[in-house]
Amino acid sequence: MNDKAFAQEYAKELAAEVPSTTKCLERIPLEKFDWKPHERSMQLGYLALLTGEIPRWITHIILQPEIDLATFAHDQQKTGQELAGLFNKNVNDAVATLNNVADGDLEAKFELKTNGQVVLSSTKREQVAQCINHMVHHRGQLTVYMRLLNIAVPSIYGPSADDKNFSSK
C-alpha cells in the first residue's frame, strides 16, 4: 500500500477510536489527577494526558524528523472536559496531516530520542503505524484506573458493565 493510501486508511481508523476515547477522558475528575494504583504506576492525570496527546505525535512524526522525550512539550494537566477537547483537537490535526501525505513522505527516517540519545530509529510509516496501538494501550490502562476509582467505564468495543443496558447473563 502506498503512503497516501496508508495514511487515508489510518486516518479512518484513528477517527473510529475517537468516541470511546473522548468518553473516557471526559470522565476523569481533576481531584483524582494525582492518584495512582501503585508506586511504580503513572498518575491518573498524566496517563489521561498521554492518551490525549498521542494523536499529536502522529502530526509531529510526519512533519518532523524526531521527538526527544526529554524536551517534547506536554500540555498542562486539565479537567476531563479539557483533556477530551485537547484529544479531539490533536485527532483533527493528525487527520488533516494524514490526509496531506504524499507517496514517499512516510519512508523518511524518524528517530525517538531521550536527552539526545537515539532510543529508536525507523521509518515515519512504521512509527505512525504504532501510534493507534499505543493510544489504545494507554486508554486500556485508563479504564483499569477508572474501574479502581469507581468511575463508570464507557462502552468501547462493546457493552461495558457500567452501561445501563448491559445484562450479565
From TrEMBL:
- Write down the superkingdom of origin: Bacteria
Q: Which UniProt keywords apply?
A: Metal-binding
Family listed:
Belongs to the DinB family.
Protein name stated in the entry: DinB family protein
